[in-house]
Amino acid sequence: MGPPTLDPRRYPFRVGASPPEPVLRELWDGMPRRPTGQTEVTVVGTIFAGLNVEAMLAPLEQAIDEWQPDLVLREPNEYASAIAAERHGIPHARVAISLAIAEEGALAFATPALEDVQPGIVDAIAASPYLTCFPESLDRAHFPVRRFHDPGLDAAPQPLPDWWPGNDAPLVYLTFGSVAAAFQSAADAYRHALDALADLPVRVLLTIGRELELGLPPPNAHVEQWVPQADVLACASLVVCHGGSGTTMGALAAGLPLVVVPLFADQPFNAVRVAAVGAGVVSSVETIRREVERVLGNGAYADAARRVADEMRGMPSVDSFLSEFVSTT
Predict the structure, then answer these.
(1) Is the dihedral angle over the CA atoms 270, 259, 244, 189 positive or is it negative?
(2) Based on CB atoms within 10 Å of each CB, which residue in 40, 98, 122, 212 is the most buried?
(3) Are the C-beta atoms of 292 and 238 separated by less than 8 Å?
(4) What percentage of the chain reaches a pLDDT higher than 70?
(5) pLDDT average, residue stretch 128-156
(6) Helix, strand, coil percentages in the chain from 3-state DSSP, rounded to 5
(7) Are 99 and 59 in contact (CB under 8 A)?
(8) Helices 299-313 and 245-253 meet at what angle, rounded to 10?
(9) For the residues 82-105, what does the mean pLDDT come to?
């Protein structure tokens, strides 16, 4: 059985390959001991651009040989597809998963490993079209980008269960994504956040992504592993999150202000830009309570978030780019 998101749509797909699990586990387990600033060198330079490319390059070249695509669309930190496309003379384009500045930084970290495999590939990637659903106000790119409206952000919400009977206080959606719970240093943030919001006049919905021992939540909080984001955002007044791109963009598309507690990866970049456009604030775990009170008590943050939402809705459909691109190749 294939991935559940692909099977119902009957999309053709091919399962790729992964680096050896013991090698990956040793690298991931060592992350907490690495000096500040060195984790990205390992994650992007060693894992993404090194081990993942080594594992995925042959399967991707075989797939391109058989499918003969007109265009390869790739996630920016998946580099084997760019190399395979270049080797077969097929155009490739990047679909952003974070801010343009994060893409620039990641490509710099990846350069040594990529150039060892395919000299000149970094310049080819840097010159490839860059598609992003991040609006210009949030994402001041230093290279040409093509912005599109993400139709996934328009999903019709369903009503949430009534986890707080008789309580109609503002709903605070609290999430640190689906990965943070795997790292103890980040997992501790969940309990701190619940305790910080325990006696505020709000309802709290926390999603944790996986099994996590948190103890008994406070009376105003409800904990789930996962809830459809569109359903939560349609009811929420504020989002407290780690600044992951999916949560950040979803909240802004819904016109919701944020309190961002960045933990790793591109999250600090996203947090800074949210604060810069006035749609939220950057917080530490220790200051969550104060910042939630600040944002809920000042309508200017919600006003700014709604302006970003309007900007996002006004961006063109991705279909317009694809039609233009394919017609010229």
Answers:
(1) positive
(2) 98
(3) yes
(4) 91
(5) 87
(6) 50, 10, 40
(7) no
(8) 90
(9) 93
CATH number of 171-313: 3.40.50.2000
pLDDT per residue as tens digits for the range 191-213: 888 888 998 999 999 988 766 67
d(CA 145, CA 285): 34
Q: Identical fold at 7-149+317-327 and 171-313? A: yes
The ranges assigned to domains in the chain are: 7-149+317-327, 171-313
- Give the Cα separation of 121 and 118 in Å (integer): 6
Q: How far is CA 239 from CA 78, 94, 122, 244, 251, in A?
A: 29, 28, 37, 12, 7
Instruction: Find the DSSP H helices in the chain.
Output: 21-29, 39-40, 52-67, 80-87, 100-117, 121-127, 184-197, 229-233, 245-253, 267-276, 288-296, 299-313, 318-327
Residue 207: beta bridge partners? 175, 224
Q: CATH says 7-149+317-327 is which class?
A: alpha beta
pLDDT, tens digit (0-9, with 9 covering 90-100), for 155-167: 788 888 989 888 8
Are the C-beta atoms of residues 216 and 272 closer than 8 Å to each other? no
Q: Is 207 helix (H, G, I), strand (E, B) or coil?
A: strand
